[in-house]
Protein backbone atom coordinates (compact mmCIF):
# COMPACT_ATOMS: atom_id res chain seq x y z
CA UNK A 1 0.00 0.00 0.00
CA UNK A 2 1.44 3.40 -0.92
CA UNK A 3 2.00 5.70 2.02
CA UNK A 4 0.90 9.34 2.19
CA UNK A 5 4.51 10.48 1.80
CA UNK A 6 5.05 8.33 -1.29
CA UNK A 7 1.85 9.64 -2.86
CA UNK A 8 2.95 13.21 -2.14
CA UNK A 9 6.38 12.53 -3.65
CA UNK A 10 4.77 11.00 -6.74
CA UNK A 11 2.49 14.02 -7.17
CA UNK A 12 5.41 16.44 -6.79
CA UNK A 13 7.41 14.52 -9.38
CA UNK A 14 4.46 14.25 -11.78
CA UNK A 15 3.48 17.92 -11.40
CA UNK A 16 6.69 19.85 -10.66
CA UNK A 17 4.96 23.12 -9.83
CA UNK A 18 6.75 25.93 -8.05
CA UNK A 19 4.49 26.75 -5.10
CA UNK A 20 6.19 30.11 -4.60
CA UNK A 21 5.31 31.10 -8.18
CA UNK A 22 1.71 29.99 -7.67
CA UNK A 23 1.54 31.97 -4.44
CA UNK A 24 2.91 35.06 -6.17
CA UNK A 25 0.39 34.71 -9.02
CA UNK A 26 -2.51 34.33 -6.60
CA UNK A 27 -1.37 37.35 -4.59
CA UNK A 28 -1.76 39.78 -7.49
CA UNK A 29 -2.65 43.22 -6.09
CA UNK A 30 -6.26 44.20 -6.85
CA UNK A 31 -7.39 47.88 -6.80
CA UNK A 32 -9.38 48.66 -3.69
CA UNK A 33 -12.56 49.68 -5.54
CA UNK A 34 -13.11 46.01 -6.45
CA UNK A 35 -14.04 45.44 -2.81
CA UNK A 36 -17.47 46.57 -3.94
CA UNK A 37 -19.33 43.88 -5.88
CA UNK A 38 -20.79 46.27 -8.46
CA UNK A 39 -17.24 46.92 -9.69
CA UNK A 40 -16.50 43.18 -9.78
CA UNK A 41 -19.14 41.92 -12.23
CA UNK A 42 -16.45 41.08 -14.81
CA UNK A 43 -16.11 37.54 -13.45
CA UNK A 44 -19.87 36.94 -13.39
CA UNK A 45 -20.25 36.11 -17.13
CA UNK A 46 -17.43 33.57 -16.85
CA UNK A 47 -19.18 31.81 -13.96
CA UNK A 48 -22.48 31.81 -15.88
CA UNK A 49 -20.74 30.51 -19.01
CA UNK A 50 -19.42 27.56 -17.02
CA UNK A 51 -22.95 26.83 -15.78
CA UNK A 52 -24.24 27.00 -19.34
CA UNK A 53 -21.50 24.65 -20.55
CA UNK A 54 -22.24 22.06 -17.87
CA UNK A 55 -26.04 22.16 -18.26
CA UNK A 56 -25.71 22.34 -22.06
CA UNK A 57 -23.63 19.16 -22.16
CA UNK A 58 -26.25 17.39 -20.04
CA UNK A 59 -29.08 18.56 -22.29
CA UNK A 60 -27.18 17.44 -25.41
CA UNK A 61 -27.47 13.82 -24.32
CA UNK A 62 -31.24 14.02 -24.83
CA UNK A 63 -31.66 16.60 -27.61
CA UNK A 64 -32.17 15.42 -31.21
CA UNK A 65 -31.23 18.08 -33.83
CA UNK A 66 -33.74 17.02 -36.47
CA UNK A 67 -36.94 18.92 -37.40
CA UNK A 68 -39.09 15.82 -36.84
CA UNK A 69 -37.64 15.12 -33.39
CA UNK A 70 -36.26 18.42 -32.02
CA UNK A 71 -39.50 19.61 -30.42
CA UNK A 72 -40.38 16.15 -29.09
CA UNK A 73 -36.92 15.74 -27.56
CA UNK A 74 -37.26 19.10 -25.77
CA UNK A 75 -40.71 17.99 -24.57
CA UNK A 76 -39.19 14.77 -23.20
CA UNK A 77 -36.46 16.75 -21.43
CA UNK A 78 -39.11 19.03 -19.91
CA UNK A 79 -41.69 16.42 -18.92
CA UNK A 80 -40.00 13.01 -18.63
CA UNK A 81 -36.26 13.23 -17.96
CA UNK A 82 -35.62 13.43 -14.18
CA UNK A 83 -34.88 17.07 -13.32
CA UNK A 84 -34.77 17.82 -17.05
CA UNK A 85 -37.07 20.82 -16.54
CA UNK A 86 -34.66 22.13 -13.90
CA UNK A 87 -31.56 21.76 -16.12
CA UNK A 88 -33.35 23.40 -19.03
CA UNK A 89 -34.53 26.27 -16.82
CA UNK A 90 -31.06 26.81 -15.33
CA UNK A 91 -29.61 26.79 -18.86
CA UNK A 92 -32.16 29.35 -20.02
CA UNK A 93 -31.85 31.73 -17.09
CA UNK A 94 -28.05 31.56 -16.97
CA UNK A 95 -28.08 32.64 -20.63
CA UNK A 96 -30.27 35.65 -19.83
CA UNK A 97 -28.17 36.62 -16.81
CA UNK A 98 -24.95 36.19 -18.77
CA UNK A 99 -26.04 38.70 -21.42
CA UNK A 100 -27.23 41.08 -18.68
CA UNK A 101 -23.93 40.71 -16.78
CA UNK A 102 -21.85 41.44 -19.90
CA UNK A 103 -23.98 44.54 -20.60
CA UNK A 104 -23.58 45.77 -17.00
CA UNK A 105 -19.84 45.14 -17.08
CA UNK A 106 -19.43 47.04 -20.34
CA UNK A 107 -21.51 49.91 -18.97
CA UNK A 108 -19.18 50.11 -15.99
CA UNK A 109 -16.14 50.06 -18.26
CA UNK A 110 -17.67 52.70 -20.53
CA UNK A 111 -18.72 55.19 -17.85
CA UNK A 112 -15.36 54.94 -16.07
CA UNK A 113 -13.54 55.26 -19.42
CA UNK A 114 -11.54 52.13 -18.62
CA UNK A 115 -11.44 51.35 -22.35
CA UNK A 116 -8.87 54.08 -23.05
CA UNK A 117 -5.25 53.56 -23.98
CA UNK A 118 -3.71 51.00 -23.62
CA UNK A 119 -6.91 48.93 -23.18
CA UNK A 120 -8.63 49.61 -26.51
CA UNK A 121 -8.14 46.05 -27.73
CA UNK A 122 -9.68 44.62 -24.55
CA UNK A 123 -12.80 46.73 -25.12
CA UNK A 124 -13.05 45.25 -28.63
CA UNK A 125 -12.72 41.76 -27.16
CA UNK A 126 -15.50 42.60 -24.67
CA UNK A 127 -17.71 43.83 -27.51
CA UNK A 128 -17.06 40.57 -29.37
CA UNK A 129 -17.99 38.63 -26.21
CA UNK A 130 -21.30 40.49 -25.97
CA UNK A 131 -22.13 39.86 -29.64
CA UNK A 132 -21.14 36.19 -29.29
CA UNK A 133 -23.37 35.87 -26.21
CA UNK A 134 -26.31 37.30 -28.18
CA UNK A 135 -25.73 34.87 -31.08
CA UNK A 136 -25.50 32.08 -28.48
CA UNK A 137 -28.95 33.05 -27.24
CA UNK A 138 -30.38 33.29 -30.76
CA UNK A 139 -29.16 29.85 -31.86
CA UNK A 140 -30.14 28.21 -28.58
CA UNK A 141 -33.64 29.70 -28.70
CA UNK A 142 -34.08 28.45 -32.27
CA UNK A 143 -33.13 24.88 -31.33
CA UNK A 144 -36.36 24.42 -29.36
CA UNK A 145 -38.18 24.38 -32.72
CA UNK A 146 -41.45 25.64 -31.31
CA UNK A 147 -43.67 28.00 -33.28
CA UNK A 148 -42.25 31.29 -31.97
CA UNK A 149 -38.61 30.18 -32.05
CA UNK A 150 -38.97 28.81 -35.60
CA UNK A 151 -40.36 32.07 -36.93
CA UNK A 152 -37.78 34.04 -34.93
CA UNK A 153 -35.15 32.07 -36.89
CA UNK A 154 -36.94 32.98 -40.12
CA UNK A 155 -36.95 36.69 -39.21
CA UNK A 156 -33.33 36.55 -38.03
CA UNK A 157 -32.05 34.97 -41.24
CA UNK A 158 -34.13 37.43 -43.29
CA UNK A 159 -32.43 40.27 -41.44
CA UNK A 160 -29.06 38.71 -42.27
CA UNK A 161 -30.14 38.50 -45.91
CA UNK A 162 -30.69 42.28 -45.96
CA UNK A 163 -27.02 42.89 -45.14
CA UNK A 164 -25.40 44.83 -48.00
CA UNK A 165 -23.02 42.93 -50.31
CA UNK A 166 -22.80 39.66 -48.34
CA UNK A 167 -26.43 39.29 -47.23
CA UNK A 168 -27.40 36.55 -49.65
CA UNK A 169 -24.34 34.45 -48.93
CA UNK A 170 -24.66 35.01 -45.15
CA UNK A 171 -28.32 33.98 -45.05
CA UNK A 172 -27.77 30.89 -47.22
CA UNK A 173 -24.86 29.85 -45.06
CA UNK A 174 -26.86 30.21 -41.84
CA UNK A 175 -29.95 28.49 -43.25
CA UNK A 176 -28.10 25.86 -45.23
CA UNK A 177 -30.30 26.72 -48.20
CA UNK A 178 -32.91 29.19 -49.43
CA UNK A 179 -35.25 28.73 -46.45
CA UNK A 180 -35.28 27.64 -42.82
CA UNK A 181 -35.45 23.85 -42.59
CA UNK A 182 -33.57 20.71 -41.60
CA UNK A 183 -30.17 22.10 -42.61
CA UNK A 184 -30.84 25.26 -40.58
CA UNK A 185 -31.49 23.29 -37.41
CA UNK A 186 -28.34 21.22 -37.94
CA UNK A 187 -26.20 24.30 -38.54
CA UNK A 188 -27.61 26.17 -35.56
CA UNK A 189 -26.88 23.10 -33.44
CA UNK A 190 -23.26 22.99 -34.68
CA UNK A 191 -22.89 26.71 -34.05
CA UNK A 192 -24.39 26.42 -30.57
CA UNK A 193 -22.42 23.46 -29.24
CA UNK A 194 -19.21 23.74 -31.28
CA UNK A 195 -18.34 26.97 -33.05
CA UNK A 196 -19.65 29.53 -30.54
CA UNK A 197 -18.20 27.83 -27.40
CA UNK A 198 -14.81 27.68 -29.13
CA UNK A 199 -15.01 31.37 -30.07
CA UNK A 200 -16.18 32.25 -26.55
CA UNK A 201 -13.31 30.38 -24.87
CA UNK A 202 -10.72 31.99 -27.17
CA UNK A 203 -12.13 35.46 -26.50
CA UNK A 204 -12.19 34.82 -22.74
CA UNK A 205 -8.55 33.68 -22.82
CA UNK A 206 -7.55 36.80 -24.77
CA UNK A 207 -9.56 38.96 -22.36
CA UNK A 208 -7.87 37.48 -19.29
CA UNK A 209 -4.41 37.72 -20.92
CA UNK A 210 -5.03 41.41 -21.64
CA UNK A 211 -6.06 41.99 -18.03
CA UNK A 212 -2.92 40.22 -16.82
CA UNK A 213 -0.72 42.27 -19.16
CA UNK A 214 -2.22 45.67 -18.39
CA UNK A 215 -3.59 45.06 -14.91
CA UNK A 216 -7.00 46.12 -13.62
CA UNK A 217 -7.81 49.77 -14.22
CA UNK A 218 -7.55 51.83 -11.05
CA UNK A 219 -10.33 54.33 -10.63
CA UNK A 220 -9.75 57.80 -9.21
CA UNK A 221 -12.03 58.66 -6.34
CA UNK A 222 -12.58 61.71 -4.16
CA UNK A 223 -12.18 60.41 -0.64
CA UNK A 224 -14.57 61.29 2.18
CA UNK A 225 -13.17 59.97 5.42
CA UNK A 226 -11.06 56.90 6.03
CA UNK A 227 -9.47 54.90 3.21
CA UNK A 228 -11.99 52.64 1.50
CA UNK A 229 -15.03 54.30 3.11
CA UNK A 230 -17.39 56.74 1.43
CA UNK A 231 -15.58 56.85 -1.89
CA UNK A 232 -17.28 58.71 -4.73
CA UNK A 233 -16.00 58.48 -8.28
CA UNK A 234 -14.92 61.65 -10.02
CA UNK A 235 -16.43 61.42 -13.50
CA UNK A 236 -14.82 64.61 -14.75
CA UNK A 237 -11.31 63.45 -13.96
CA UNK A 238 -9.19 61.69 -16.58
CA UNK A 239 -9.66 58.00 -16.06
CA UNK A 240 -6.60 56.22 -17.40
CA UNK A 241 -4.47 54.77 -15.71
CA UNK A 242 -6.24 55.76 -12.50
CA UNK A 243 -5.12 55.90 -8.92
CA UNK A 244 -6.69 56.75 -5.61
CA UNK A 245 -6.21 60.18 -4.10
CA UNK A 246 -5.59 60.42 -0.37
CA UNK A 247 -6.21 63.40 1.87
CA UNK A 248 -8.99 65.28 3.62
CA UNK A 249 -10.24 68.82 3.19
CA UNK A 250 -7.50 70.30 5.37
CA UNK A 251 -4.64 68.35 3.85
CA UNK A 252 -2.63 70.66 1.60
CA UNK A 253 0.02 68.09 0.81
CA UNK A 254 -2.08 65.37 -0.77
CA UNK A 255 -0.04 62.31 -1.58
CA UNK A 256 -0.89 59.81 -4.28
CA UNK A 257 -1.24 56.23 -3.24
CA UNK A 258 -2.90 53.13 -4.64
CA UNK A 259 -4.53 50.96 -1.97
CA UNK A 260 -4.69 47.36 -3.10
CA UNK A 261 -5.49 43.97 -1.65
CA UNK A 262 -4.39 40.47 -2.72
CA UNK A 263 -6.41 38.43 -5.18
CA UNK A 264 -6.37 35.47 -2.79
CA UNK A 265 -8.09 35.23 -0.42
CA UNK A 266 -9.81 38.65 -0.47
CA UNK A 267 -11.02 38.99 -4.06
CA UNK A 268 -11.44 35.23 -4.42
CA UNK A 269 -13.96 35.29 -1.57
CA UNK A 270 -15.81 38.20 -3.19
CA UNK A 271 -16.16 36.22 -6.43
CA UNK A 272 -17.15 33.11 -4.46
CA UNK A 273 -19.94 35.00 -2.67
CA UNK A 274 -21.17 36.42 -5.99
CA UNK A 275 -21.17 32.89 -7.45
CA UNK A 276 -23.17 31.51 -4.51
CA UNK A 277 -25.71 34.33 -4.77
CA UNK A 278 -26.06 33.69 -8.51
CA UNK A 279 -26.56 29.97 -7.90
CA UNK A 280 -29.32 30.76 -5.40
CA UNK A 281 -30.89 33.27 -7.80
CA UNK A 282 -30.81 30.79 -10.72
CA UNK A 283 -32.51 28.14 -8.60
CA UNK A 284 -35.24 30.59 -7.52
CA UNK A 285 -35.83 31.65 -11.14
CA UNK A 286 -35.95 28.00 -12.27
CA UNK A 287 -38.56 27.22 -9.61
CA UNK A 288 -40.68 30.36 -10.00
CA UNK A 289 -40.43 30.77 -13.78
CA UNK A 290 -39.37 27.45 -15.36
CA UNK A 291 -38.67 27.26 -19.09
CA UNK A 292 -41.96 26.77 -20.88
CA UNK A 293 -42.70 25.04 -24.18
CA UNK A 294 -45.05 26.50 -26.78
CA UNK A 295 -46.71 24.92 -29.80
CA UNK A 296 -44.59 22.88 -32.28
CA UNK A 297 -43.15 24.75 -35.26
CA UNK A 298 -45.51 25.07 -38.22
CA UNK A 299 -43.87 26.57 -41.33
CA UNK A 300 -47.35 27.05 -42.91
CA UNK A 301 -48.80 29.27 -40.16
CA UNK A 302 -47.24 32.63 -39.27
CA UNK A 303 -47.86 33.69 -35.63
CA UNK A 304 -49.56 37.03 -35.07
CA UNK A 305 -46.87 38.31 -32.73
CA UNK A 306 -43.21 37.29 -33.03
CA UNK A 307 -40.96 38.36 -30.18
CA UNK A 308 -37.20 37.76 -29.98
CA UNK A 309 -35.33 37.48 -26.72
CA UNK A 310 -35.29 40.67 -24.62
CA UNK A 311 -31.74 41.67 -25.61
CA UNK A 312 -32.93 41.97 -29.23
CA UNK A 313 -35.98 44.08 -28.36
CA UNK A 314 -34.29 47.41 -29.15
CA UNK A 315 -33.09 46.17 -32.55
CA UNK A 316 -36.51 44.68 -33.30
CA UNK A 317 -38.26 47.97 -32.45
CA UNK A 318 -35.75 49.90 -34.59
CA UNK A 319 -36.47 47.62 -37.55
CA UNK A 320 -40.21 48.21 -37.09
CA UNK A 321 -39.73 51.97 -37.15
CA UNK A 322 -37.65 51.97 -40.34
CA UNK A 323 -37.51 50.14 -43.62
CA UNK A 324 -35.77 46.78 -43.59
CA UNK A 325 -32.68 47.99 -45.44
CA UNK A 326 -32.28 51.20 -43.42
CA UNK A 327 -32.84 49.27 -40.20
CA UNK A 328 -30.12 46.74 -41.01
CA UNK A 329 -27.64 49.41 -42.16
CA UNK A 330 -28.36 51.46 -39.01
CA UNK A 331 -27.76 48.40 -36.84
CA UNK A 332 -24.48 47.72 -38.64
CA UNK A 333 -23.35 51.31 -38.06
CA UNK A 334 -24.20 51.00 -34.36
CA UNK A 335 -22.24 47.75 -34.06
CA UNK A 336 -19.26 49.34 -35.84
CA UNK A 337 -19.30 52.37 -33.51
CA UNK A 338 -19.73 50.09 -30.49
CA UNK A 339 -16.72 47.92 -31.37
CA UNK A 340 -14.38 50.76 -32.35
CA UNK A 341 -15.59 53.25 -29.73
CA UNK A 342 -12.17 53.68 -27.99
CA UNK A 343 -10.72 55.17 -31.17
CA UNK A 344 -13.76 57.41 -31.75
CA UNK A 345 -13.48 58.52 -28.12
CA UNK A 346 -9.81 59.36 -28.61
CA UNK A 347 -10.71 61.65 -31.51
CA UNK A 348 -13.48 63.33 -29.47
CA UNK A 349 -11.17 63.91 -26.49
CA UNK A 350 -8.51 65.48 -28.72
CA UNK A 351 -11.02 67.74 -30.45
CA UNK A 352 -13.15 68.62 -27.41
CA UNK A 353 -10.92 67.97 -24.35
CA UNK A 354 -13.19 69.59 -21.75
CA UNK A 355 -16.65 68.72 -23.05
CA UNK A 356 -17.14 65.18 -21.68
CA UNK A 357 -18.88 64.32 -24.95
CA UNK A 358 -18.16 60.60 -24.57
CA UNK A 359 -20.01 60.47 -21.25
CA UNK A 360 -23.13 62.11 -22.70
CA UNK A 361 -22.99 59.95 -25.82
CA UNK A 362 -23.13 56.96 -23.48
CA UNK A 363 -26.04 58.42 -21.50
CA UNK A 364 -28.07 59.18 -24.64
CA UNK A 365 -27.19 55.85 -26.28
CA UNK A 366 -28.17 53.78 -23.25
CA UNK A 367 -31.37 55.83 -22.76
CA UNK A 368 -32.40 55.13 -26.38
CA UNK A 369 -31.61 51.43 -25.92
CA UNK A 370 -33.76 51.27 -22.77
CA UNK A 371 -36.63 53.22 -24.37
CA UNK A 372 -36.69 50.94 -27.42
CA UNK A 373 -36.41 47.83 -25.23
CA UNK A 374 -39.28 48.84 -22.92
CA UNK A 375 -41.34 50.03 -25.88
CA UNK A 376 -41.04 46.65 -27.58
CA UNK A 377 -41.61 44.79 -24.31
CA UNK A 378 -44.92 46.47 -23.45
CA UNK A 379 -46.42 47.11 -26.90
What does this structure look like?
The chain is mainly alpha-helical and 379 residues long. It has one domain (29-218, 258-378): Cytochrome Bc1 Complex, Chain C. It has helices at 4-14, 19-26, 44-60, 70-79, 84-111, 120-142, 147-161, 167-175, 182-214, 263-288, 313-321, 324-339, 341-351, 357-378, and strands spanning 29-31, 221-222, 232-233, 244-245, 256-257, 260-262. A two-stranded antiparallel sheet has the order 1-6.
Quick tags:
14 helices, 379 residues, single chain, globular, two-stranded antiparallel sheet, mainly alpha
SSE blueprint and pairings:
Elements: H1 4-14, H2 19-26, E1 29-31, H3 44-60, H4 70-79, H5 84-111, H6 120-142, H7 147-161, H8 167-175, H9 182-214, E2 221-222, E3 232-233, E4 244-245, E5 256-257, E6 260-262, H10 263-288, H11 313-321, H12 324-339, H13 341-351, H14 357-378
Helix pairs in contact: 3-5, 4-5, 5-6, 5-10, 6-7, 6-9, 7-8, 11-12, 11-14
Tell me the name of the CATH class. Answer: Mainly Alpha
Quote the average pLDDT: 83
Shape: globular
Please outline the major beta sheet. Answer: 2 strands, antiparallel
Count of beta strands: 6
Quick structural summary:
By secondary structure, the protein is mainly alpha-helical. It has 14 helices and 6 strands. The N and C termini lie far apart (71 Å).
Amino acid sequence: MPTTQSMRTWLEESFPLDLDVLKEMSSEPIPYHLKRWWFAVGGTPLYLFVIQAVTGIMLTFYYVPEPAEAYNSVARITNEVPFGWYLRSIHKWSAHLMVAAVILHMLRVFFTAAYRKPREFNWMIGAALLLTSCVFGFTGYSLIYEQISYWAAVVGTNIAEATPLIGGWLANFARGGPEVGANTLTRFFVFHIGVLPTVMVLLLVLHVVQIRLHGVTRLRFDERGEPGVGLSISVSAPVTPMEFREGGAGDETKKEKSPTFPFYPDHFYTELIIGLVLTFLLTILALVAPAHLGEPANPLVTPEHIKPEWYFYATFRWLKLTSFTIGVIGTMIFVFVFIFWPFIDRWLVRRYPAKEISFWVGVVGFAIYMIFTLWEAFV
